[in-house]
Amino acid sequence: MNPSKMVRGISTAFALFLLLVCSLQAQSPVASTPAIEKKVDEMLAKLSLEEKIDLIGGVDGMYIREEPAIGLPRLKMSDGPVGVRTWGPATAFTAGIGLAASWDPELAKRVGKSLGEDARARGVNFLLGPGVNIYRAPMNGRNFEYFGEDPYLGSRMVVGYVEGVQSKGVVATVKHFALNNQEWDRHNVSSDADERTIREIYLPVFEAAVREGHAGAVMNSYNLINGVHATQNNWLNNVVLKKEWGFEGVLMSDWGSTYDGVAAANGGLDLEMPNADFMNRKALLPAIKQGQVSVATIDDKVRRILRTALQFGFMDRPQEDLRFSKYNQAARQVALDEARESIVLLKNETAVLPLDAKKIHSIAVIGPEAWPEVTGGGGSSTVTPYTAVSLLEALGKREGLQVLYAPGIPSVSQLINETNFQDDVKAEAFTDGSLTNATTISKQERLNDWKAGDWVPPGTPQSYRYTADFVPPRGGKYLFLTVAAGEDSYTLYVQGKPLIQESRSEGQAPRFAEIALTAGQRISLRVDYVVRAAKPRFGLGIRAVDELVSEDAKKIAAHADATVICVGFDPWWESEGFDRPYALPFGQEALIREVSAANKNTIVILTAGGEVSTANWLAGVPALLHNWYSGQEGGTAVAEILFGDRSPEGRLPISFARSWEQNPVHDNYYAPPAAPGESPHVKYAEGVFLGYRYYTSGKEKPLFPFGYGLTYTKFAFRDLNVAPATTIDGTVSVAFVIANRGEKAGTDVAQLYVGDPSAKVKRPAKELKGFQKVRLEPGEERQITLNLDKRAFSYWDEAIHGWKVDPGRFTVFVGDSSEYTPLAGEIIFK
Predict the structure, then answer these.
(1) From CA 80, how far away is CA 63, in angstroms rounded?
(2) How far apart are CA 701 and CA 663, in angstroms?
């Protein structure tokens, strides 16, 4: 080949490479400029009032409508926040709480970039994530999507996530704004809190996403805030978000969270999704004519949509970018790294972990979460990956290791389908919605109409009454399990007394109870059931409690060199739309007790969006790993940690209580009954003393503290040096040394807390204000410097409606959990 032609060819290829790189980099949004605002004005002028109103209502479930006259394309959305869910298979990342457990903002940015790439591969303009609501109580069905209990940790994670997503030319939508801390009755419940609590605990992560991350969109929540729905809350949306924080993007509703078109329009909502059920011509044109809503208000909403489209380049390029593969192998590596960093080792008595491959030749893998891989919780965040690696599969790939497997306990479907009644079940159907005047009477062998994942379209409410007899073959405790779906409601009566009741709500998990029965004694059963779908979907299962754990599980546990028990929840137990139980699902506690009794080398792997009840089983197991929901690569990551290929890196982003009763939210989580037509009110009576802020300020200690996590090495802190600012508006520099004193490489998270004992108001003893993740080789040490600004020492003063620092003494704490802070120093502000 001619050398000059070769040079020209290389130059051309290099130029094309640079063009590709520049074009990819140019996808990041730009700040608004006079030129952009002028363009918005020109586009707005071409629209009629009717067209403007049409534009602020979504279409076809996941789109902002197109406006060809002004060059606005149809803008596509996708559910998130742990994967691009809506448009087919995609990378399933670790759940948000697991990402927070990594304490790694740079990892959050990598995850965001991968999500952005997956979105571009599918032509998605708006990713509906991240979710950033605060973990208030463990039962909240969407805790797994969020970043834990601490606003500072969440704020650092969200900035990286948002910047990563938007660097790929995709709008990150921060949700759910705000105080959406329970799924129970979420459309009707009012979250009632004072302004200080709201500002210090529940808004900072949103504020960081907007002010630092420059998020292009925010999504309102379903709930009311101090009696006013979020989508029509003027203080929240107009005063705080748009005026104080300077948010210029699009404020959209959650799907079906708009309840009044005029109130929402005036309350700051810019876009009603998925359809214009309330903010439409029928509601708004008369309101404008009567002076209830101004044209300027409508114009501002349209401006925000057009401005965002221009800033992100949606009018200059197709959003679908085939340079990004739908089968994203680079994202798969990010998902693996995320799973590796998220898993928290909570207990490791007698140094059971890591397992010694020279001694452990067989391992029993037992439990409902061992296979298939449970990548995430349920609801709109559910992602179907192209492939997902379970722990069973990952361990099965290890050379020289014999892997034995048993589910250990029956599934819900098995328990239902294997329940036999004395005679057939009598089924009476009532089409008038009550339990009078049965229209049909039939018989069936079992109550097994429920099927996991079988979505049934809504129908006319119908009532059913099932009656049957059950004769226990022997005496003892029996488990009764009931399950329906959606908004169905029912009551199970045993011998005429109610045993299990499910009231009407948006969704539900299976319910169960145990009662003692006498061998051979016939008991009567009745189920009164209201189905709000096109067909019944109720199931009832009964089994002796001592028969729940399979003999196979106990036998292989006794035979193996070590046992891993995989327990926790899945999308049918922990999901959007309802709250989950605090205790583990049926049979799992017994599984842990019986299997761990058969093998002293037992490790429990917990899959859940937060803490669970451990009182009945934790003392009997030497090791506990919290897996959260670790996405499609979770099995690989757990297997690596079990055998010491990697040391665990995760640290708790929550406080793990000893019991639900110990939680400061216990007495104020579920609202007292409300009068007909009134909203139930949940009072946030704990105020700012949530999670570790409560435990470090009182005498109670949690089971595992916030920030806690074990490794396979030991870390030490020394040489604290605090360089105070000369004025209260300056920067305080905190330096210290962290050292790896063990024999293995490992990772720790150095955490900096601030206390204000001389404040004029009651403040928590410790509040997280800085952290840094550190990886060290054996014997290695590193000096860390963290800087604190004025906000780190401030509290919200309701009298001045602003942040305030009281002069006096402050304490700086350094360590690696909220309870372990061996270094302490003082600062005095005059």
Answers:
(1) 15
(2) 10
Cβ neighbours of 278 (radius 10 Å):
22
For a pLDDT cut of 70, what percent of the chain falls above it?
97
Point out the catalytic residue in the list 254, 270, 488, 528. Answer: 254
Residue type, 82: V
pLDDT at 589 over 70: yes
**Tokens, residue 628:** 């959260």
254 is catalytic: yes
Q: Which CATH number fits domain 31-311: 3.20.20.300, 3.40.50.10540, 3.40.630.30, 3.30.420.10?
A: 3.20.20.300
Note the CATH number of domain 712-829.
2.60.40.10
Which 3-state string (H, E, C) describes 294-317? CHHHHHHHHHHHHHHHHHCCCCCC
CATH 3.40.1280.10 is the classification of domain 343-409+548-646: no
Residue 684 corresponds to which tokens in the numbers above? 């946030």
Are the C-beta atoms of 567 and 423 separated by less than 8 Å?
Answer: no
Domain boundaries, given as residue ranges, for the chain: 1-29, 31-311, 343-409+548-646, 421-538, 712-829
Q: What is the pLDDT of residues 375-431, one digit of tens each?
A: 999 999 999 999 999 999 999 999 999 999 999 999 999 999 999 999 999 999 998
- pLDDT tens, residue by residue, 495-526: 999 999 999 889 999 999 999 999 999 999 99
Q: Please answer whether residues 416 and 448 qualify as being in contact, where contact means their C-beta atoms are separated by less than 8 angstroms.
A: yes
User: CA-CA distances (angstroms) from residue 13 to 5, 8, 351, 673?
Assistant: 12, 9, 56, 70
| pLDDT at residue 699, rounded to an integer | 83
Give Cα 36 to chain centroid, integer Å.
36
Measured distance CA(505)–CA(515) in Å, rounded: 26
The C-alpha torsion from 795 through 796 and 797 to 800, rounded to 10°, is 130
- Residue 21's CB: how many other CB atoms inside 10 A? 10
Torsion of CA 490, 495, 499, 504, to 10 degrees: 10
| pLDDT (tens digit per residue) in 807-823 | 999 999 999 999 999 99
| E strand segments, 82-236 | 126-128, 171-177, 190-192, 217-220, 224-225, 228-229
Mean pLDDT of 560-588: 97
Q: At what angle are helices 329-342 and 634-642 packed, to 10 degrees?
A: 50
Helix or strand holding residue 602 (H, E): strand 602-607
Residue with tokens 């605002």: 37
pLDDT at 772 over 80: yes
Residue 27: the pLDDT is: 82
pLDDT for 26 equals: 52
Q: Residue 252's beta-bridge partner residues? A: 219, 271
Rg of the chain over all Cα atoms, to the nearest angstrom: 28
421-538: CATH homologous superfamily? Galactose-binding domain-like (2.60.120.260)
The three-point CA angle 178-182-187 to 5° equals: 75
Distances (CA, A) of 73 to 64, 77, 248, 305, 376: 9, 13, 20, 12, 33
Whether this model's pTM surpasses 0.90: yes
Helix (H, G, I), strand (E, B) or coil at 775: strand
Asked whether the predicted pLDDT for residue 367 surpasses 50, the reply is yes
CB 818 within 8 A of CB 707: yes
pLDDT tens-digit series, residues 173-231: 999 999 999 999 999 999 999 999 999 999 999 999 999 999 999 999 999 999 999 99
CA-CA distances (angstroms) from residue 258 to 146, 390, 791?
Answer: 23, 40, 35
Rounded to the nearest 10°, the torsion over CA 296, 299, 301, 302 is: 180
The amino acid at residue 558 is: A
Average pLDDT, the chain: 95
The yes-or-no verdict on residue 15 having pLDDT over 60 is no
SS3 251: strand
